[in-house]
Design a protein that fits this description.
Layout: H1 3-13, H2 16-21, E1 25-31, H3 49-56, E2 58-65, H4 71-78, H5 110-116, E3 120-124, E4 161-167, H6 177-191, H7 210-239, E5 246-252, H8 267-270, E6 271-277, E7 285-287, E8 291-292, H9 295-303, E9 328-332, E10 342-347, E11 350-355, H10 367-370, H11 373-383, H12 389-392, E12 402-406, H13 424-440, H14 451-468, H15 473-488
Parallel strand pairs: 1-4, 1-5, 2-7, 2-8, 3-4
Antiparallel strand pairs: 2-6, 5-6, 9-10, 10-11, 11-12
Helix pairs in contact: 6-7, 14-15
Length: 491
């Protein structure tokens, strides 16, 4: 008996209030800018007891991937259960100006489906702030009424809830040396200690620069803060009597914000933690199969007894008839003013990356990123000759058109096998897989963004910086002009 049929049978045999009482609450905890740096995922330098405990009473996924390594495209995807490239929402912070983006016919944000099924829908930060909804950041037009409020405790008696907690995660460390220090002081106050930069081991593609070490130490302390927050949320659920009937889903929206993390297709940007616990979820289990972050839409609907739309690309990976994914896909397109076009396929132990704009540098000009202390330090180290050959790739003027990595032998993705004669078969397989995915998913990402849409969104950026950061206005104008110049030159 599937979950939907069981629920429908329940509706006709018992009073409505009793039927709703048997439906689980669903709580998503979505964390910004954080990779899988938790104890249960192998992080040794810090302890994360609350995430670890959630994993022990639920199921931990070791191969969960986002379909977009930046927040608005990622969020547009998981709230609809659709690839962002299938719904035209693949450019970061797009549709914000005069030109709008509307969802294709038949595609709906899942809070609407939960509301129609009688659920109270909420989205908030933590702790709750009266009248203030949490982060949405969707790249399409949506009805704000699909959220009933920011606090699920305001629901009617016996009414189940579908709630989202959106938390700042890695953003808590800020972007300057001063903010890193502030994060350390916060850790001292909260935990009695801070992570020491000298104890940090950076991935080999980053230099052991003092700024980068301080940043990573501060980042790890934000992981501890996030773990503490999870503990507070679980304690509230328990105190309110909701814990035993709530499916708690803990995930991040993409990896750490860094030179090879957020916005990029390497493991640091795409691989995320995913832990789920609650009624009918396996206890103490670890899943090693490939799953995509959009799948959380399907598993949530199924758990609530709500029919999954036939057109939805997300899959209920808890269903008895679920067929394990043989590959996961991701796309990176324009972020802020910076035009980009990258695709990736993960299959087995191999990762394939296609850099369509390979004549441009990896670190293209970007006003948001270029003012971060870590990128300033990285570029300074390059100018002073302090980068080894692997690290210097980050600052190279061009990139390879294709990249292939064996993640089992090369987890840091350092040895590009794209031109290896021994891996020709894998290259052929990966190229074909990417093409099939594009064809089968009503792919909108092949054509460049129109000049009208780009200009419409850029005007929003310009107007915002004019008010908030006027000192960066000229930098943004220069970058926009460069993007147009490169595009006109076919670069």
């Amino acid at each position: 008996m599937n979950r939907l049929f069981a629920f429908l049978l329940l509706l006709v045999t018992v009073p409505a209030t009793d039927a709703f009482a048997n439906r689980p609450n669903i709580l998503w905890i979505i964390v910004d800018d954080m990779s899988a740096n938790f104890s249960c995922y192998g992080e040794k330098l810090i302890e994360t007891p609350n995430v670890d405990a959630l994993a022990k009473r639920g199921t931990m996924f070791t191969q969960a991937y986002v379909t977009a390594p930046v927040c608005s495209t990622c969020r547009s995807a998981f709230i609809t259960g659709m690839y962002q490239t299938s719904i035209g929402a693949h450019h970061h912070r797009s549709g914000r100006g005069k030109k709008k983006i509307h969802l294709p016919k038949g595609v709906r944000p899942i809070p609407e489906l939960f509301q129609e099924a009688g659920y109270y829908t909420s989205i908030s930060g933590w702790p709750f702030r009266k009248g203030r909804l949490g982060k949405t950041d969707y790249n399409f037009e949506w009805n704000k009424k699909m959220y009933d409020g920011p606090d699920w405790t305001k629901r009617k008696e016996g009414q189940p809830f579908f709630a989202q907690l959106q938390t700042p995660g890695g953003k808590l460390r800020g972007a300057t040396l001063q903010s890193f220090e502030k994060t350390g002081k916060r850790a001292d106050a909260l935990f009695g200690s801070r992570t020491k930069p000298e104890d940090v081991t950076l991935p080999p593609y980053y230099p052991n620069d003092p700024v980068l070490l301080k940043d990573w130490a501060a980042y790890l302390d934000t992981v501890r803060e996030t773990d503490r927050m999870l503990g507070q949320v679980l304690a509230k659920l328990k105190a309110d009597g909701d814990l035993e009937n709530t499916i708690v889903l803990f995930m991040t929206d993409h990896g750490i914000s860094h030179a090879r993390g957020k916005q990029f297709m390497y493991e640091e940007g795409l691989h995320v933690p995913l832990v789920i616990a609650g009624p009918e979820i396996g206890v103490g289990k670890t899943r090693v199969d490939l799953v995509e972050h959009i799948d959380i839409a399907a598993i949530s609907l199924a758990a609530a007894g709500i029919a999954i739309p036939k057109s939805m690309q997300a899959k209920d990976f808890f269903a008895k008839d679920y067929q394990v994914r043989d590959a996961v896909y991701a796309a990176r397109d324009r972020c802020d003013e910076t035009v980009e076009h990258i695709r990736s396929v993960r299959m087995g132990t191999f990762k394939y990356i296609r850099n369509y704009l390979h004549q441009r540098p990896h670190l293209q000009p970007n006003a948001y990123k270029d003012n971060k202390a870590i990128l300033i330090a990285l570029k300074k180290a390059g100018a002073e000759g302090r980068l080894n050959a692997i690290q210097a790739r980050l600052l190279a003027p061009t990139r390879p058109p294709e990249e292939l990595y064996d993640l089992e032998k090369d987890p840091f993705e350092l040895n590009n096998l794209a031109k290896s004669k021994l891996h020709k078969r894998w290259m052929t397989t990966m190229r074909a897989s990417l093409k099939r995915w594009e064809i089968s998913t009503n792919y909108h990402g092949r054509k460049p963004e129109t000049a009208e849409m780009y200009d419409s969104d850029m005007q929003v950026y310009l107007d915002t910086l004019k008010i908030r950061r006027p000192g960066r206005l000229q930098e943004l104008k220069t970058n926009i002009a460069l993007m147009k110049k490169w595009a006109a030159a076919g670069k």
